[in-house]
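Subject: mismatched residue count in predicted assembly?

I count 968 residues in my input, but I want to confirm that the predicted structure covers every chain. Input:
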Amino acid sequence: MKYDVIIGCEVHVQLLTNTKAFCSCENRFGGKPNSRICPVCSGLPGALPVTNQSIIEYAIRAGLAIHCRIPEITKFDRKNYIYPDLPKGYQISQFDMPICEHGYLDVTTSQGTKRIRILRAHLEEDAGKNTHSEDGSGLSFVDLNRCGTPLLEIVSEPDIRSPEEAVAYVQGLKEIMEFTGVSDCNMEEGSLRCDANINLWIYEDDRKYATPIVELKNMNSFKSIRSALDYEVIRQKEEWEEKHITLDQKGKLTRGWHDKSGTTVLQRHKEEAAEYRYFPEPDLRPIKIPKELIESIGRNLPELPEQKRKRYRETLGLSVENAEKLTSSPELASYFEKAIDGYGGDVKKIANWILTEVMAVVNDKKINIKDFAIEATKVQALIKLLDNDVISGKIAKTVFTEMVEKGGDPDQIVKNSGLVQVTDQGEIENVIDQVLKDNPKSVEDYKAGKAQAQGFLMGQVMKLSKGKANPKMASQLLKQKLDAL
Amino acid sequence: MANITDLSLSQIKKELDGNKLSGKEVVLAFKQAYEADQAHKTPLNGYIEFFDDAEKLAEASDARRKNNEARGLEGLPLAIKDNILIQGKIATCGSSILKDFRAPYSSTVVERLKNQGIIPVGRTNMDEFGMGSSCEYSIYGPTRNPMDRNKTPGGSSGGSASVVAGKQAPAALGTETGGSVRLPAAFCGIYGLKPSYGTLSRYGVVAYGSSLDQIGILSRDPDDMALLLEHGVGTDPHDETSAALDFSGVYPLKPKNPKGLKIALPEEFMGEGIDEVIKNKVTAFASWFEKQGATVESIKLPILKSTVAIYYIIAPAEASSNLTRYDGIRYGFRDEKASSLEDLYIKSRSQGFGDEVKRRIFIGNYVLSSGYYDAYYKKAMQVRSILKQEIAKVYENYDLILSPTSPCLPFNLGAKLDDPLAMYLTDICTTFVNLAQIPSLSVPCGTSEEGLPIGIQLIGKQFSEINLLSIAKTWHQEEGLKQ
Ligand SMILES: [Zn+2]
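Triage response: the counts match. Full output below for your records.
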């Protein structure tokens, strides 16, 4: 059977503004239920929303980063529906005049790079959360803390042709939202949520048939996005083979992904719930967006991950792999950039040190790089000690371990613990002489042509010098002495 | 000196400022008037509650005055419609669904007035959520017209009009969405001001039709309105639609002579459907203006005929959305016997709302639903913007629009209760003002032969309310006081 997979994504990202979208409550995750609310976000009678200017600016920043057009005027609308976690009985959203339109995102998969068009991105407010007791009491609870949290809903065109592409698209969006500081995109806390519309175009008897569109919800990780879409492709294929139901016959359905069972489950027919009775929000004035504002946000747009990777490869000379790794989060990229700031040497060394030594500690401690205690400038100082032959690579690791454990400055640590590398030729020769004297068997082996004996002897030299001998000098001198014997 | 309860708000201010009266005496006088009326065989029923703490607040206010800390509105009593929140007080909007709702915060206007020394003396009866023209659609029963207790005081701010005309308060706050201040003012023979949309903050006013709602003032003297406006206006950071107005120094009003004014009299409100007695009063009022040196011209403004129709699309549309929050989940009435979420919504809302509110929620949901949106809501909004343009055109050539406030005299209680359409038609002269978001002052212009009050509106361009009041002051001094 020949078919195409047609996927469009609706991604919600929570904006990292200080306050909520339409009131002055702090915009922060969690808290005791109903502790972060006010008359406005809890929908008390008489309360009125007031647009937080920052949500406009954040949305423009996000929109420009995904190449959207920002219109001169935007407005809010009410999306009406009744649910306990929606205290006003409507969600303030945007219907026909979204703040961002017609952008795109280039995504790279095993099939190469492809452009996914973005239809629109609009602002709206988040709802609260309902919880249901599991103690048999039948009680349900409503927590309104999340109400009024600003969201940007980014809607793609149905340009995505595989589950792999869908994941790459969402990952790409996540990266951009993180690098522009628009959102922290924490999927576990729900600050990035993805719904996907998927169906198949099946080519049979020289005709094209579209299967019913399924809106997939409840995918809380990249893994579940991938699994849910994979599952849905197979399910729709099987359903087609069995029942031959087309989009025209059935329309749009909503299915939820269940991580545990690894299946999607029918939630409801879309059209039954689609009556939102949108109308312009009379409590808020339409917003004129000055050209100057768009331009100034555009000018101050930070370097996006794709541009960064390119610069790391082409200007800094990093490998594709390292460039990729260093841009995996804005915090890591920023750490790297601080570490190489003003450094005159080979930045690859710093890149390697961060990706191996620093990340080993960060991963071990399960912390974010931005919370790592050793400042990036100290990593540069440490690498400079290496560059200037003040310490050896081995000592550098010891110094780094001490920096991690006790803090402090690499120069100071090296000075205080007498770890300064020995570069005095006489001193190194004394050590070598002692080693040669202590290991006559290995010397014999070397003379007999066993090259690896030199390695062993070198190890002994470093051991005896407590790692302080300059390895390059020690190695040269050892060779000279062996050959002279 | 006259009875305290006969005094206007500005006269009371004079007496208090001159230390001729104490705040406590004033509050007590109105309280006694209210209590005396309660003993009447058909009480006016203007107040839902006369506040117990009013006396205490008056005592504190008197102490302040003694310490020379008197503020602009020190010790002045004010009645407040039951949909304007006062922190700590119940606010029901005349509805079962909010019967026990105690406001956790104050509306901006009440807050501002209180900060200047106003003493809220009680909350007044109203048609449920402001939906009605007779003050009968309330769980607290109908309010009566002090001029004739068998008649309606008009609605929805009927309680506010009744307590002011009935001398139980010198002035009151009401709210308007389509005439709810002016109609009761006209029916009760007092002044009723609907300021421009944006003049007074809507924050803390329970929403009915958000693009139309506005706090209004009912009093027996235009100066009282200037006094309250002076301290009530100004940009409110809680209301994006509030205007940056500065009315400092407008009180006391400087009377404005109508000489040279050009006044438009729309034919649409002087023809069929308007009571002859009222038309005659409008003509008499127009002659007064002409005598003062103004010119009055009849104009044709056919769009005015559509305004009730579009009003009864836009207001219910917004209301249907605004009232969804009364769902029995977080506050207000909940049917505890409900068996599921949907059942809880249905039972709580079915019992919590009265018929007129339900009717408007149905209309609102209908005109917004897909398939009907374009034919109703969208079209109504288009007509509304044409109306605004046409009104603007009128003001290019005229200073004022003059029209009856009500097409009919105060009617008997119960007369239109079961005829919603007849009830809606009492709004034909008022709704266009809300749709156009302009100010209008209903001026009491005498009575019919049987003594029923008649009100006539002075309608100005946006934010010209002080001008309207200044003109009205001239009339008040020359004619109004004679009545
Ligand atoms: Zn809030």
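Residues A 20, 23, 25, 37-38, 40-41, 148 surround zinc ion (CB under 6 Å). Marking this ticket as 'not a bug'.
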